[in-house]
């Protein structure tokens, strides 16, 4: 099933991006603080509210630098569940803040802009999943964590990009599986498990899908001695593996990694140069983790517009006014939590996006 229709949320993002996005400085029209006092006010307000600020690896550098914790979606949600803070300010996209709320229902969870959606999560909704399940009665549903709470609630077990293959291997080999929503991650899982009874939803993240095989070939040929980190959501993953197998790029220099996996690999890398195929916000953490290696994007245009909706001004407004709070109804949250906890019980949850 093709699933690329734009949702109202996606359309709204384009309008906002075209009119108001200000990622580098303060916005005089919004009445926000000069940059020199912005960070002080953010920290004071966070302390007064007893709030912890979490930032995803793809956030703007200013947001990453002010946060208490920076990481991947699942890792941050687990931090949210363990913290003593009363409030969680989740600087990421909406499904990530929902996951934090699902794992810590007693805390107040906020996102600086509730319109920060995700083109991958939006490729399947609860009605579409119900219909797909009805076409495959008895199939086990495995959902990547990049899904809404309602979709997780209809899921048997969640997975991350680190453990998707382990989750599938934990399921009876004779059992039919519905894997969603990312087709590139699904193809990767099919390849490494060798199973042919996995049906894969035809969803994709527009940012990662745009990191194309031709981007990869051009960048690799211009940097033949570089290591290569590729997120399995990328449109170039299959080509990279094919190039590695055919010897066009050195197989031992090519790593298919989640965002958390990239960070761990970067810390121990002794390479002069590493090419990175994922959203470009990730480069900020990689460069901080290893200042002696040069990290270059495979596609420098691969910026997520949804992640960039979380601006310094909106973070400050969130702390001042308590907007936007995230709610998940109890029945949905309980069912979704069961799917996430089953994944954690299988082990190696590693990281989400
Ligand atoms: S990079 Fe893609 S998967 Fe990640 S939040 Fe943005 S649209 Fe969603």
UniProtKB/TrEMBL annotation:
Keyword list, A-Z: 4Fe-4S, Cytoplasm, Iron, Iron-sulfur, Metal-binding, Pyridine nucleotide biosynthesis, Transferase
Binding-site residues, iminosuccinate: 56, 73, 144-146, 161, 231-233, 259
Compartments (UniProt record): Cytoplasm
Alphabetical list of Gene3D superfamilies matching this protein: NadA-like
Cofactor binding summary note: Binds 1 [4Fe-4S] cluster per subunit.
Pathway: Cofactor biosynthesis; NAD(+) biosynthesis; quinolinate from iminoaspartate: step 1/1
Chief site of localization: cytoplasm
The keyword Iron-sulfur is assigned to this record: yes
Protein task: Catalyzes the condensation of iminoaspartate with dihydroxyacetone phosphate to form quinolinate.
HAMAP family: NadA_type2
Protein known as: Quinolinate synthase
């Amino acid at each position: 099933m093709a699933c690329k229709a734009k949702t109202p949320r996606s359309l709204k993002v384009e309008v906002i991006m075209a009119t108001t996005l200000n990622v580098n400085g303060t916005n005089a029209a919004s009445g926000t603080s000069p940059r020199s006092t912005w960070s002080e006010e953010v920290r004071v307000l966070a302390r007064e509210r007893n709030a912890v600020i979490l930032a995803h690896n793809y956030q703007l550098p200013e947001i990453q630098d002010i946060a208490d914790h920076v990481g991947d979606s699942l890792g941050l949600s687990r931090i949210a569940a363990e913290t003593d803070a009363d409030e969680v300010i989740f600087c990421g996209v909406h499904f990530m803040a929902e996951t934090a709320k699902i794992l810590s229902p007693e805390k107040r969870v906020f996102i600086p802009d509730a319109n920060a959606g995700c083109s991958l999560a939006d490729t399947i909704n609860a009605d579409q999943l119900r219909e797909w399940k009805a076409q495959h009665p008895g199939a086990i549903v495995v959902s990547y964590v990049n899904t809404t709470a309602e979709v997780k609630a209809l899921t048997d077990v969640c997975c991350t990009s680190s453990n998707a293959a382990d989750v599938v291997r934990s399921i009876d080999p004779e059992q039919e599986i519905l894997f969603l929503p990312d087709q590139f991650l699904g193809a990767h899982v099919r390849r490494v498990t060798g199973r042919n009874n996995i049906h894969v939803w035809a969803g994709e993240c527009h940012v990662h899908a745009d990191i194309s095989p031709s981007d990869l070939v051009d960048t690799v040929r211009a940097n033949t001695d570089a290591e290569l980190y590729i997120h399995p959501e990328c449109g170039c993953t299959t080509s990279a593996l094919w190039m590695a197998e055919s010897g066009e790029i050195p197989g031992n220099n090519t790593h298919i990694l989640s965002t958390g996996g990239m960070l761990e690999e970067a810390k121990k890398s002794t390479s002069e140069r590493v090419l990175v195929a994922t959203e470009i916000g990730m480069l900020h953490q990689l460069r901080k983790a290893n200042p002696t290696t040069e990290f270059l994007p495979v596609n420098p245009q691969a910026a997520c517009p949804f992640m960039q909706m979380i601006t310094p001004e909106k973070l400050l407004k969130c702390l001042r006014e308590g907007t936007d709070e995230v709610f998940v109804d109890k029945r949905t949250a309980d069912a979704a939590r069961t799917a996430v906890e089953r994944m954690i019980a299988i082990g190696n949850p590693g990281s989400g996006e």
